């Protein structure tokens, strides 16, 4: 909600503010419940905090990305398959830097591991495609709420 307000330079509607506050409170409660007393005593709490910070940064970056996607849809039309292709195709060259590690891990994996990978990739592909389709039907704030 804050990213949308900042980028669009207009205050949000009151029902979206209420929804944003309720979701934020729920996410904070769920996140805090993961920080158990045992983690605080063992010194793992710092790593937990770093993970939470990474997730928060990811949420804000995702909101900015959604706003850019919304702007692109308004200029060029809504084509979720094309966006899905480019977001995946443009990321592939970055994997060249870790080619040896990926190759070694792939060659050293058993058929059971490959089966689990395939079983995991299929629903992830369906989910990703559905999210891109949702982004053509709803605004960025709604999509971010749903994904959160």
UniProtKB/TrEMBL annotation:
UniProt key word Transport: yes
Membrane protein topology class: Multi-pass membrane protein
UniProt entry keywords in alphabetical sequence: Membrane, Sugar transport, Transmembrane, Transmembrane helix, Transport
Recorded GO CC terms: endoplasmic reticulum membrane; Golgi membrane
Compartmental location: Endomembrane system
GO molecular function, one term: UDP-N-acetylglucosamine transmembrane transporter activity
Xref: InterPro entries: SCL35B1-4/HUT1 (IPR013657)
TM segment ranges: 14-32, 44-63
Family: Belongs to the nucleotide-sugar transporter family. SLC35B subfamily.
Protein name (record): UDP-xylose and UDP-N-acetylglucosamine transporter
Source species of the chain: Eumeta variegata (Bagworm moth)
Organism ancestry: Eukaryota, Metazoa, Ecdysozoa, Arthropoda, Hexapoda
């Amino acid at each position: 909600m804050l990213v949308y307000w900042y980028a669009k330079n207009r205050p949000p509607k009151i029902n979206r503010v209420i929804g944003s506050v309720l979701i934020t409170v729920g996410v904070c409660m769920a996140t805090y419940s993961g920080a158990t007393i045992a983690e605080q005593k063992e010194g793992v709490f710092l790593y937990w905090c770093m993970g939470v910070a990474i997730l928060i940064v990811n949420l804000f970056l995702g909101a900015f990305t959604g706003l850019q996607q919304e702007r692109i849809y308004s200029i060029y039309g809504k084509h979720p398959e094309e966006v899905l292709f480019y977001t995946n195709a443009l990321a592939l060259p970055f994997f060249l830097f870790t080619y040896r590690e990926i190759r070694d891990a792939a060659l050293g994996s058993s058929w059971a591991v490959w089966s689990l990978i395939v079983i995991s990739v299929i629903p992830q592909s369906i989910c990703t495609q559905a999210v891109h389709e949702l982004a053509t039907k709803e605004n960025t704030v709604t999509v971010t709420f749903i994904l959160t």
